[in-house]
Amino acid sequence: MSMKMTMSWLDLRSSDDISPLLQQFDNRYQITRFIRQQLTIETLLQCKADIICFEYDYPDIPSLNLLQEMHNLYPDSPILMFTEQHSEALAVWAFRTGVWDYFVLPLSESVIAEVINSLSNANEFCFSLRQQFEQSGHVRLPDEVRFRAPPVSQQQLQPALNYLEIHYSQKMTEEDLAKLCSLTVSQFSRQFKQAFDITFQEYLVNYRLTESARLLQNPAASISDIAYSVGFNDPSYYARAFKKYLGVTPSRFRQLLKENNQPDAVACELLKTA
């Protein structure tokens, strides 16, 4: 009978409860769990394992520095990072630091199965990770982790926000997102309105319009194609919504971009007057 692979699980969430995600791996690996309060230089030296997992809700500078220190101590142990708060900058930082894989919570059952399956081959990556470590050095932390976690009113909604940022161009319902947050539709709707002072549908439309404003910087993309790509099925409705949001039509916005080489400044100025 083969021995189980060892896994160190660094639980850096604000909750003291055992992570439901950790329990998904419990029967497959010999896991040692460490919580934030336990992590000192001495305990880091006890975290050596075949695989090292970091689980975050809202990463901050000290907790991300721990990941860097762990990678420096054990460059040949694959590190997985699980986080509720997500940004492109955080993901880029993670991979540049040497994280083997990065996941945004919550994970579906199919993704968890893929993670478990891929970990069976994790040792094959040890040599390449060692080479990567020799070249990586210290990577600057992304700016957003220098700020505090989102307000309590937004934290329970974070799974929905993470999903929206990735799938904003697809059809989604409040019922689907409420389930991600373990809320009923009425609870989700009420909490969302309280947290952002607009409805979820208004937030989604605004997010799509903001993304479309970025895409309008590409002169090769037609306005209709941009409308479809961000989730609007009717280009004429998109144009009306864009004008309501920014005060000008998409074609006029594109013209302003040609006249001003600072698209962010154009958008900010329009938002002030819209």
UniProtKB/TrEMBL annotation:
InterPro entries: CheY-like_superfamily, Homeodomain-like_sf, HTH_AraC, HTH_AraC-typ_CS, Sig_transdc_resp-reg_receiver, Tscrpt_reg_AraC-type_HTH
Stretches assigned to the HTH araC/xylS-type domain: 158-256
Database matches in SUPFAM superfamilies: CheY-like, Homeodomain-like
Annotated signal peptide: none
Keywords of the record: DNA-binding, Transcription, Transcription regulation
Molecular functions (GO terms): DNA-binding transcription factor activity; sequence-specific DNA binding
PROSITE patterns from the UniProt entry: HTH_ARAC_FAMILY_1, HTH_ARAC_FAMILY_2, RESPONSE_REGULATORY
Pfam family, one: HTH_18
Sequence ranges assigned to domain Response regulatory in this UniProt record: 1-120
Keyword Transcription regulation attached: yes
SMART domains on file: HTH_ARAC
Amino-acid biosynthesis is among the record's keywords: no
GO terms of biological process kind: phosphorelay signal transduction system
PANTHER family assigned to the protein according to its UniProt record, in alphabetical order: ARAC-FAMILY TRANSCRIPTIONAL REGULATOR, HTH-TYPE TRANSCRIPTIONAL ACTIVATOR RHAS
Name of the protein this chain belongs to: AraC family transcriptional regulator
Species annotation: Amphritea balenae
